[in-house]
Structures are given as C-alpha cells and as structure tokens.
Design a protein that fits this description.
Layout (H helix, E strand, L loop, with lengths): L1 H30 L11 E4 L5 E4 L6 E3 L2 H9 L6 E4 L23 H6 L4 E4 L5 H9 L4 E3 L6 H14 L3 H22 L6 E7 L5 E3 L5 H8 L3 E2 L8 E2 L1 H7 L3 E4 L4 H5 L8 H4 L3 E3 L2 H5 L5 H12 L6
Parallel strand pairs: 3-4, 3-5, 5-6, 7-9, 7-11, 11-12
Antiparallel strand pairs: 1-2, 7-8, 8-10
C-alpha cells in the first residue's frame, strides 16, 4: 500500500513538472520574440516611404543607419538589440562599442548582411537603390523620415514602439519631450524675440544656414527667437544677406568659433562685437530625436538667459 501511494505521488509530481516545463518554454519563446508576446506579432506597419511591412516576430538584432534613429532606440531601452550603427552615431556613449557599417553615403552592404539583422532602420539619405539591394538580400528596412517637425520625431518613436512591442515606453518618451517643449514655450511666450542666425558653414565654401523649412528653425522659434533666414528655403545663404540682417545672436559649432569671429566681414557683425556668438552642441540641434526637448531648452537659455536666473 505504501509502495502504491509512493508511485501515485511520484506520477503526480512528474505531471506537474511537465506542465511547468511547458509553461516555462512557452514564456521563454515569447520573451525571445519567437512566437510573439501574447499574440502581439505578427504586425503590419507602413514606413515613411509608404512601404507596407510585416514584422513577424519581435526583432532581436537591429542596425540603425542614422544618429537620430540610434538615439531613439536607446531612449526606448533597446540598445542591447543594436548590432550595427551609422558611423555618425555617437550618443549615448555606449553605442561607440557597436560595430559601424558605414556613413550616410557609403554603406558596407556585406558587413550589414554578415550581422544578420532582423530589421534595418533608416532615415534621411536612404535612397531607392539601397532599398532594393536590401530587398534582394531579404532584409527588412524601415525608413523613418523626420519631416522637419516635432511631429516627425513623435511619429518615429511611435513606429519604433510598435515594431519592438514597447508602445508604453514610446508614449512615455513622447510625453516627456512634449512636456519639455511646452515648458519652454510657456516660459518665453511674452519675451521679446532676438534675431538669430545659425551657422551651418561659412567662408570660401559659401555660407549655409538653417532656413525656414528646417527643424532647427522651428526650434529657434519655439525657444523664443526669430530666425533671420526664416523666409528662405534650402540651406544656402550669403555673407551679404547676413551682414544686411545683422542678427542679435549667432549660434555655431565649437569648430567654427575662432575662424568665424575673426573672419573678414563676419567680425564686423554686431553679434560678434557684442560677444553674442554662442557655441552650441550641433549634434543636439541637428538630430531630430529624443533630445529635441533638451535642445529647445538649451536654445532658450542662450536666447533668454534672464528667464533662467
């Protein structure tokens, strides 16, 4: 009798172990994106090129082909999935340990294929020829254009949140950026707007700036400034136009400062004479990503220091 009772207990334990093992394996599979999470996958999305794409399982290996895309992925806590990056992607610092696959113009297609990405995320400068090459290799490419607006930033984060099944985190990031922008807008709404010029390039190669159709111009406006090139399109400006407009404040990267303030014609500008030429982190301003709210705040501190005392 005791022996029979022992056999029954043993068999019962084995049944429970089998059930537990099956449940555990299923959970692991879901965690690895193999079967989707609670039926989340497959999903269908449409990227900025109008491409309809099916994501069959949670991507585990991703290559980011633009710095703003890289920053979005890390902001969504997806940095551990990034196996390849554009060579200009340098933020956050840990991304420097990730292998580079080329820049905007020259991509190493073979290296990308060797890294076996589940998905490649591209942004500006990604053309149709490259898209077709990746299709031939069977690599899914999601292209996210920023549209030179905060809405473009929000949409990019939202799409990535959907692709990687982190929609709640994506909404948190979007809400955070919106709150940062709204705080600056509220602070500067009644302040007098100084005229501003942003140096993209200058000198013998020509003068270039962030004109009215750019994201940088939009940030200057939100931060309480008046972009002197707001009525121009493209990036080309001229020294003559700059001298004529004679802005109150000039913004430029640290690489340009000494040459600009001592350059012929530029040194006669009121902003130079009045020491109103400010060095800015051009990567912070140039990239339409999760640090956009921070960029607006930094601009506002330069344009309206009296409001931040």
């Amino acid at each position: 009798m005791k022996r029979l009772k022992g056999i029954i207990i043993l068999m019962t334990a084995m049944v429970f172990m089998m059930i537990f093992s099956a449940c555990t394996n299923e959970d692991v599979a879901k965690g690895n994106g193999e079967n989707g999470a609670d039926g989340y996958y497959p999903i269908a999305i449409e990227d900025s090129l109008g491409e309809s794409l099916e994501i069959k399982a949670e991507p585990q290996r991703v290559i980011a082909l633009a710095p703003n895309i890289t920053e979005m992925l890390y902001a969504l806590d997806l940095g551990d999935k990034v196996v390849g990056r554009n060579s200009y992607s340098d933020y956050p610092e840990e991304v420097l340990e990730v292998e580079t696959v080329g820049d905007f113009v020259d991509l190493d297609i073979e290296k990308i294929a060797e890294l076996q990405p589940d998905v490649v995320i591209a942004s500006t400068f990604f053309d149709e020829d490259l898209q077709n090459k990746f299709k031939e290799l069977g690599i899914i490419v999601i292209t996210l254009y920023d549209e030179n607006s905060f809405e473009g930033v929000y949409e990019g984060i939202e799409v990535l949140g959907k692709v990687f099944n982190v929609e709640e985190k994506a909404e948190e990031e979007i809400s955070r950026i919106k709150a940062e922008v709204e705080e600056v807008q509220s602070l500067v709404k009644d302040a007098e707007k100084p005229s501003v010029y942003y140096v993209v390039d200058y000198g013998q190669s020509g003068d270039y700036t962030a004109t009215g159709e750019t994201f940088i111009s939009r940030m200057i406006e939100i931060a309480g400034g008046e972009n002197i090139a707001k009525d121009i399109t493209g990036w080309v400006y001229s020294k003559e136009q700059l001298i004529e407009q004679d802005p109150d404040i000039i913004l430029l990267s640290p690489y340009y400062y000494e040459g600009f303030i001592s350059g012929e014609g530029y040194k006669e500008l009121s902003a130079v004479k009045n020491e109103k030429v400010y060095v800015v982190d051009n990567n912070l301003l140039d990239r339409q990503g999760p640090r956009a709210g921070k960029a607006v705040e930094e601009l506002a501190k330069i344009l309206h220091p009296e409001l931040y005392k």
